[in-house]
Design goal:
heterodimer; A: mainly alpha; 8 helices; 2 strands; 4% strand; B: mainly alpha; 0% strand; globular
């Protein structure tokens, strides 16, 4: 693959970003499979997704270099400028999410929040299965939320398909391997962007907070 | 050849598709009132829907109560009693002709009538499980009620899997 001549292997994605990414891949697929006949596993998978999404949002403020929202969320001008040149057949060199990809990240996180948020309250048609907070809503409300839960999953599927299509586009058209970067954390770039890492204590705090909230929700906030 | 859609364009398209699907789904669930000139079969289809909602609400009321640290036996028994009388009448909610032909949004499969024996067996199974549930609740035996919840839900699901066409 054509990498920039004289480029350097630079660290882009830190461990937490990569782990969250691949766990979401596994758990979104697993949750989909388990949604029909394995609702107990579906619930546990959902609690894990809650923890991962909350952690990722926290990491967007407390994490290192490329993980931070402030590093990749751009205004309309920068997005338009990037969109104007994304069709060019050259190797992408953004050290992290590009301005367009940032929109995708935000949309995916928002949809995942909607997904797990509605999942907490859903009621199954038989009123036998339900989310951990389903006793806080009526049967009708729980059923309506179950419909939103399904619709938002379709929207999530569309976004995932778009995400995969974009990654393939970068790979095949722009000759930029983003998949390897999400595995190893490293990209070949013209220069090392010198992204700062985050101290371990911030990771510990984030994992602790996310796990505690997910655990409390799994208990239906009944202690 | 700049035929490749920009990522932003594709994203906007995907969001548009998602919104259209969501909007379409929401529209399909716009309140579906019974037509003023409804015939007996159509009335039966709407009444059945209302009865299933009552049944669902009662089972949910039971399950919510059982989730509490110390469930109120009176609430438990009131809900199982409602379930018991509803499920007892359930076989009468399906007069021939009250399927989708009577109400397009009906989720009743034609198999209810073409496989009447199978449907009756499934409905009877549900009736048996709910009767056990109600007997346990009437006796104030919460442990027995809790143990009977799963077979009851299984009977609901067993019938839905075969005879209910999900329309969401």
């Amino acid at each position: 693959m054509g990498e920039p001549a004289g480029g350097v292997r630079a660290k882009v994605w830190d461990g937490p970003v990569r782990i969250v990414h691949w766990l979401l891949v596994v758990l979104i697929g697993f949750s989909w499979w388990a949604s029909e006949d394995h609702l107990n596993w579906h619930r546990w998978s959902g609690y894990a997704v809650i923890g991962l999404v909350l952690f990722r949002i926290y990491w967007g403020f407390a994490g290192g270099g490329a993980a931070r929202f402030s590093a990749f969320v751009k205004g309309p001008k920068a997005i338009a400028a990037y969109a104007a040149e994304v069709g060019r057949r050259d190797v992408a060199v953004t050290p992290g999410h590009n301005p367009l990809g940032a929109l995708s990240v935000l949309a995916l996180l928002a949809l995942l929040l909607l997904q797990v948020g509605t999942g907490l309250f859903v009621v199954d048609i038989d009123a036998f299965e339900g989310g951990p907070l389903s006793d806080r809503v009526s049967y009708d409300t729980g059923r309506a939320l179950a419909e939103i839960h399904e619709l938002s999953f379709r929207a999530l599927q569309a976004l995932v398909a778009l995400h995969v299509a974009a990654v393939l586009y970068y790979w095949l058209w722009k000759r930029t391997n983003l998949i390897g970067a999400m595995i190893t954390g490293k990209r070949t770039l013209p220069g090392d962007p010198g992204l700062a890492g985050a101290p371990v204590w911030r990771l510990v705090v984030g994992v602790g907070l996310a796990a505690a909230i997910a655990w409390a929700l799994s208990k239906g906030l009944r202690f | 050849m700049a035929s490749v859609m920009s990522r932003g364009g594709a994203l906007a398209l995907a969001i548009g598709i998602g919104a259209a699907i969501a909007g379409g789904g929401a529209l399909a669930h716009v309140h579906d009132p019974m037509p003023a000139n409804a015939n007996a079969a159509t009335k039966a289809a709407y009444a059945r829907h209302a009865n299933f909602e009552k049944l669902g609400a009662a089972f949910k009321g039971l399950n919510d109560e059982l989730k509490k640290g110390s469930p109120d036996k009176a609430v438990v028994a009131a809900n199982t009693k409602t379930m018991n009388s509803l499920v007892g009448a359930l076989p009468t909610w399906f007069p021939r002709g009250s399927g989708v032909e009577a109400r397009p949004l009906s989720e009743a499969k034609a198999a209810i009538w073409t496989d009447a024996a199978g449907f009756t067996a499934a409905a009877t199974a549900a009736r048996t499980e709910v009767a056990k549930l109600n007997a346990a609740a009437a006796a104030g035996d919460l442990d027995a009620v809790k143990a009977q919840v799963r077979p009851t839900g299984g009977a609901c699901k067993g019938c839905h899997d075969k005879y209910r066409e999900k329309k969401d």
